[in-house]
Amino acid sequence: MSAAATDLDSMLGRRWKRPPLIRRAWLRWTLTLGGLVYLVLAIASVEVNWSRVYEGLDRGAAFIMSFARPDFVSRAGDIWEGLLESLVMTVAASVVGILISIPIGLGAARNIAPLPVYLICRSIVALSRALQEIIVAILLVAIFGFGPLAGFLTLSFATIGFLSKLLAEDIEAMDKTQGEAIRATGARWTQWINYGVQPQVMPRLIGLSMYRLDINFRESAILGLVGAGGIGATLNTAFDRYEFDTAAAILLVIIGIVMLLEYLSGLIRARVR
Amino acid sequence: MPVREISGAKVWRRRSTGEALLRWFGWLVGVAVFLWCWQRISAATTWFFVWDAPRIAGDILDRATPPRWSYIDALWWPIWDTLNIATLGTMIALVFAVPVAFLAARNTSPSVWIIRPVALLIIVASRSINSLIWALLLIAIIGPGVFAGIIAIAIRSIGFCAKLLYEAIEEIDETQVEAISATGASRWQVMVYAIAPQIMPAFAGISVFRWDINIRESTVLGLVGAGGIGLQLSSSLNTLAWPQVSLILLVILAAVVLGEWVSAKVRGAII
């Protein structure tokens, strides 16, 4: 309170200025200067072949125009096959990922799990989060061969890291008194989890699962690039052959499905809340 | 309250018979869908390769260790490129995301019926398509290289940043806006003095968060030819140079962990 008062006194009679975002002057100036130097170096090191870019503008315009007349028909079979495979991978991987991430999420919550279990589960989560999907997919394709199985395993693995971490954080933030009340009735450990913990985290778990389903579909669209099944392979071929109208059709379908999934997950999340 | 009569006494139940049946039916459909999906995956899989997988995995691990440490000298420049793709991409994205967010937020959009849906469509389109696909597209248009990577990251990030930012704008305290408007401030002055200070922490947090994600994404952009360390990864994979692959993966892992650490520190300092 006194600090604010002296601040006010010293500011009396002077013109008001907006307070800066970073209060310490030296830090502000170092960050600004450092940022500028970095920016100059970075932009200088990026080689842009402007004539190539200029040539490409026609193709860019052609691509954007092709959104106006997407070609769903001439490659309908391929698009349908790829899409179905993507959806199948998404659903299967989400189910398996969610089932595995529940025990790992329980183990990664410090207020439930003993220290050794906590450390093991946390390291699984960290590993899964640090490796991005596409790299995992490359390795799994090398090990399991081409096809949707590699994609399915990749998405399940990525789901575990995402969902367990958020679930564990939610469990750690739960209300302890409800758990204690259940404990006081003489409940077993499983009963304690079922009646004391699960009702508190269920709405968020359902919401997160729906969100992850949405992410998994988006990710499944790129796994085909490295041979892990799904619509990505079709899309890649379309780009390689400059069949922009087919590519536009695929992208529109992806956007449509993502919008639909987002809408559905919004509905479900609103209901469980 | 649903009850069941057992020899004359009423016993409490959680759900009525109809509700319980409906739930069971829902579960049945869910399990059936999952099994059907699994069957399709299984049909498209060569199971011989899967049974053989442990041997192959061991073989790859054997070839990949120890990493070829001397190869790191060839990696400094790609690492710098990767950092630039992430940082410049994030910056370009923010420049576009701010106006889009203001157009998409219900309380600042000039027209809720015409402009807001357009802004929301931009956000959805940018968010639904992975940066690798944007990179693929941009390479077809402007040729391979770091520049395509930067633009791909930027396009992908616009939707993400704009979505989080417009949600922050919609949650601002309206009384401050009223107070500034009451002084006779213009629309722009209201934005600068009433809205901007309220969303500044969210804005800084979002940018650092997205930068962190972009570091991850830019490490793999090279797989499709958009510059960065992924280019080296892709060529090492194509020549089956597993010791180089393992070194690159270690570098990527370090970059990701470092990026996350920086982002967590900065966000901790802001919030």
Give the oligomeric state.
Answer: heterodimer
Quickly give the CATH architecture of the largest domain in chain B.
Orthogonal Bundle
Q: Biggest protein-protein interface?
A: A-B, 59 and 57 residues
Order of helices and strands of chain B: EEHHHHHHHHHHH
| Total helical elements of chain B | 11
Q: What report would you give on this structure?
A:
- The complex is a heterodimer of chains A (273) and B (271).
- By secondary structure, chain A is an all-alpha fold.
- Chain A has a single domain, classed as Orthogonal Bundle (MetI-like fold), CATH 1.10.3720.
- Chain A contains 11 helices and no strands.
- Chain A has helices at residues 2-11, 25-45, 50-66, 76-107, 115-130, 133-144, 148-172, 176-184, 189-223, 232-240, 244-272.
- In chain A, helix 4 (76-107) runs antiparallel to helix 9 and helix 6 (133-144) packs across helix 7.
- The longest helix of chain A is centred in the last third of the chain and has 35 residues, at 189-223.
- With 271 residues, chain B is an all-alpha fold.
- Chain B folds into 2 domains: 3-62, no CATH class; 74-270, Orthogonal Bundle (MetI-like fold), CATH 1.10.3720.10.
- Chain B has 11 helices and 2 strands.
- A two-stranded antiparallel ribbon of chain B has the order 1-2.
- In chain B, helix 4 crosses helix 10 and helix 9 packs antiparallel against helix 11 (242-270).
- The longest helix of chain B has 35 residues, at 187-221.
- Chain B is flat.
- The chains are: A mainly alpha (273), B mainly alpha (271).
- Chains A and B meet through helix 2, helix 3, helix 4, helix 6 and helix 7 of A and helix 1, helix 3, helix 4, helix 5 and helix 6 of B.
